[in-house]
Give the backbone structure.
Amino acid sequence: MPRRSVVRWSHLLFVAAFFGLLMAPGLAGHWWHGVQIAENRTLAPPPQRPRSWQQLLAWPKQADDYLADHFGGRLDMVVAFNRARYRLFGETPGEQAVFGQHGRLFLTSHDAIHPYSLIGFICGVDVADKQLDAAAADLDVFFRQAKSWATESYLMSVPTAPALYGEDLAPWLQSQCSATTMDRLLPRLQHGDLANHLLYPRAAMAEAKSRGQVIPLTNFHWQGVGAEAAAVAFAEGRLGLSPRMTLPTRVEVEPSDIGQMIAGIPTANAVRLPDYLAAGVQYCLGPACFPALGAAANVIADLSSLRSPQAGDKKLLILSDSFGTALVGWFAPYFGSVWHFSVSNLGRLSADQREAFRRQVFADYRPDVVLYVLHDGSIHYWPKLAAQNLWGP
């Protein structure tokens, strides 16, 4: 073969290899999926075919962002890096979810932009008296509205891990969490009708710590023992009800509800849950539980129902933030029927859909008791949000 041909073919092979290496990550990302994890952010979407000069100029950046988020083996590398960092230094990938002491994982904030804002509020860091006064006033207004819809209305504020497991916080945080926001807020609520209809089950949950984790070790939300203790404190301690049945339980291993923030680090929890099949209880979770709500049920998303034939005819309605779901099953010994809805997405319903929702849950269902549930980190904003989403301005 002539020397010129050899040189030409070598150049062609070099160019092909060069472009092949450039294309390899993208092609591998298309065919090789490897580890599958849900990251705590939105990955870059595929670039679209440009239809204008502006879109054409933006296309290279969009393609680069897409390839950076989707090249083959990327998730495996993320997982390997997170695991190595945790095992070597005990660190998590970011500040939104961090390990304290004794293996407990804490959610520090609801968004990555304001790390430690959630723990800071729960612990009362830089929470001024005027903020507490405003929160107390908002709770009073909310409760008055709630009572106008159902006389037997109650409000439960759920203590979260910083309030229950202060000993597990990092030492530098422990010193700032001696008097929580709820400790300072409760004295402002000890008057009027609200005082007799407000439950903060911290003592009951603290006592239940001897029986297991009241907040699973790597969870933000409660599950199992903690939710059970709060349900008993409300049903028996506040309402004076007696259980009509003994609720059998089972132990299941569940993933952490904030594990996606620290992909690759082991976070599963063994939790004790109601055994509905053994108890003869009908439990339903999701939009299909309420076909009469139609498309609104899909918007609400977080909703569930329970029918407990042995518990009689008493009806409970739970309207909550994200802490309501885990509570539902533990009321099976006390209520024959439990309906639960998160109010977080009600603001996305049309006016007609919200009116139909209120009619179904209050007028048609006619609950004997209505329980509003929120966690201690949302006590300063949830009452206004819930009132707006439920009843409008």
